[in-house]
Amino acid sequence: MITIDNYLDNHYIHRSNWLRAAVLGANDGIISISSLAIGVSAASSTREPIILATVAGLVAGALSMAAGEYVSVSSQTDIEKADIERETQELKDTPEEELKILAEIFERRGMKKETAMQAAIELTEKDALGTHIREELGINEISQANPIQAALASGASFAVGGFLPLLVVLLAAVKSLEYWLYGFTILFLIVLGTISAKTGGSSIIKAILRITIWGTIAMGLSAFVGYLFGVKV
């Protein structure tokens, strides 16, 4: 039975913040570490330098992704906090104008003028700031940024994604390592697309095509850049 307490159980929008960071981190981990390993393996006939470079790239990449995600999402949080402070002050200084704006918002969503004003009055009496934050600024508990959650999701997923090419480096033959990495990278991207689609409740085919096509383009561009600089990638 669907109630107000469980109506989101069949939806996935509440996963969007951390899922975005996780998919970004895993995708970046797979592609960047694979590209790094391919580049080093092309210039080395032994496994040790490849492993060293791959592990170093994995650690540095995971920390960089976590730090970058934390900083970027924190910037979003700062904007949200600043807007909330401005809205708080506006409610103190011009409460009547804010009430009219809220009623107009409801009118534009389809309410009659009288109904919109009545709804605005009742919601303002109950929670003026919370109502304006939600209705005027579009900030709610689902969409609100969480820097720590995003940083952990991005850093951990990069580490997991980057660990997969590392396994290939550890297990595959050194002479044909580039080809193993190319093949398994595509396979890893297909798996990532499937997992992200299932987690987000979206189309698996679309997710796989999107992530493998762009991943392949990224790998191809990496190889092209290496070719321009005389490096076999």
Automatic annotation (TrEMBL):
InterPro entries in alphabetical order: Ccc1_fam (IPR008217)
GO aspect biological process, one term: intracellular manganese ion homeostasis
Protein topology in the membrane: Multi-pass membrane protein
Record carries keyword Transmembrane helix: yes
One Pfam family per UniProt: VIT1
GO molecular function: manganese ion transmembrane transporter activity
Subcellular location: Endomembrane system
GO cellular component term, pick one: endomembrane system
Principal location class: membrane
Keywords in alphabetical order: Membrane, Transmembrane, Transmembrane helix
Keyword Membrane attached: yes
Transmembrane segments: 21-44, 50-71, 150-173, 179-195, 207-229
PANTHER family cross-referenced by the UniProt entry: FE(2+)/MN(2+) TRANSPORTER PCL1
Protein name in the entry: VIT family protein
